[in-house]
Design a protein that fits this description.
- The protein has two helices and nine strands; from the N terminus they run βαββββαββββ.
- A hairpin with a 6-residue loop joins strand 4 and strand 5.
- The longest helix is centred in the N-terminal third of the chain and has 13 residues.
- The protein is 18% helix and 43% strand.
- The strands form two sheets. Strands 4-5-2-3-9-8 form a six-stranded mixed sheet.
- It has one domain: HesB-like domain (Hypothetical Protein Aq_1857, Chain: A, Sandwich), CATH 2.60.300.12.
Length: 110
Amino acid sequence: MNLLISADASKRVAELIAKNDKKMVALRVSVDGGGCSGFQYQYQLAESINEDDFVLISDDKNVKVIIDAVSQEFLDGCSIEFIQELGSSHFQITNPNASAKCGCGNSFAV
């Protein structure tokens, strides 16, 4: 599996983990059915890594991103960015496997 995380996204994940009260170890990114295009991305801080998870370690070695076995086929070849715009900030996935995506960028079709 091939997945990239930008320096900005890695930095933001590290900030979220550091300020969380629980012992979080990684950002879990998954794909669920839903959204206006059929599938949507989900982001959660995770306390543990499952045996069948794909684990991406950021270039700076500070952050782990984990992908469950079912979501791996949807996220192969993707990149994760952290976008800061006037009044909002969010993670954004660039997915070359998507045949369509909605206007908000959080939902896609394959």
